[in-house]
Design a protein that fits this description.
The chain has 484 residues and is of the alpha/beta class. The protein has two domains: 291 residues, Rossmann fold (3-Layer(aba) Sandwich); 167 residues, no CATH class. A hairpin with a 5-residue loop joins β4 and β5. The termini are far apart.
Length: 484
Amino acid sequence: MRRIFLLAVLSLSPFSAKAGDFNLDGLNAAAVRAVPETSVAIPRVSGPKAWTVMLYSTTKDKLRYTLVWQLLEMKKTGSTGLVNVAVEASFPVKYADGTISTPTFRMALGNAVNADELDKLIEAMFRAGERPIDFSLLAPFGPDIVKTENGVDTGDWRRAAEFTKWAKTNYPARRYAFVIYGHGNGIFDPQKNGRGTLIDAETKNYVSIPELGLLMKETGHVDAFVMLSCIMQMAEVAYEIKDYADVVVGSSELMWSVGYDLNSMLASLNSNPDIPGEKLGGELSDGYIQRVKEFKLSGAHSSVIITSRFPAFVGKLNAWVEAELALNDHTAAVNAVKNAARFDIFGVTLSSSPALARRLSISGDLYDFVSLVTANTPRDTSAQLLARQRGAELMDFIAGGLVYKYVYTGKTNTGFDFSRAHGLSIYVPPVSMPFGSLVEFENHLQTLYRDLPFARETRWPEFVNWLYPALFPKEVKNGVSGGI
């Protein structure tokens, strides 16, 4: 079936006028109202199922279309004797009397609904264009809605944690998949001003990277953590949640809002409830790239990280940094900064050029960066040979150990072929400092890089700070800053 999609990417740009467009798309404020809040009793369960899928979204903006599409697709399978599906979703709704509200629905999907009927609703939604979701489109979820609330701050990590704990308590399972759906900006963690991870378009609140760690600590262990959110597949982000998830599924680049095929995930869990988490993540990644191709979108990628391999990864990363610091030759590293495959962490390409996005980006593919440094390091001395050896060992472990699967199509938003990347990005110093200087850049941040657990517990900041004076000598000479 050919569908009409109003597509969006899952990121907001601090360099774009569109970044502040957080209203109900020009709707008449007089028409907005609160709906009656409802709550129903949770039926008792006889015992845990094989899986519970928990989906938490912050989609009060245009992402509401693809979120409701995902929910209608998931309803084709629904909850079964093997799989629970718990959802918390908030988006603008237009009611039969013409009034509009932005309620938050907490749902436990029930039995499947006829796929043809759901496809008709999906078609109707996308034909309607840019407006609130018509309440009639939510009819299949009538029996599934456990609670309806007004005024919920979905960008508060404590609200998300309350949802996951509720889902685990009332819909227990032997294994869990936790899916987040909302705008993301990786480690770019600005002051609470309406841009970040799991942004609430009304409250301007969002989940910061440290708060993501708190959310996962409250949630507890999950077998798969799936980020339908831009730029999030960074070493620093995955490190924040490594103790709470077996695998992390995500993208280092801006994501298309069509996202992962969650209904296919439900089908897979039902047909193979013993599926390993990494294989489930691989299927999700494959499905995302298939969707991107199906709708003839430009490039995309996705990867699956196995968190149990982080200790070995950190050891190899630190060994490479130690070898580079001992070599103490900036030449190859400076060249790599200028030429490494980068991702549009600031959403610059939403309003400006790929070239500007490349210069400002602080997110680069780690494998590609190390590859460039290694390839441009001579072989004349024992220190050079050791640095090359440690680089090769690190690259081999990223591609064959830490990253279980990496799939892609086309090019990054910044113009690099995705084949150069290997599914894990990291902080790489920019070519041109955002906002003019490191001090000004840090003035925009809620969380400084050096305060992240990854920065405190690895030697990567030592490498960046060693490299920084060679990249920005004037700034260091003028005493503005010596590094991150």
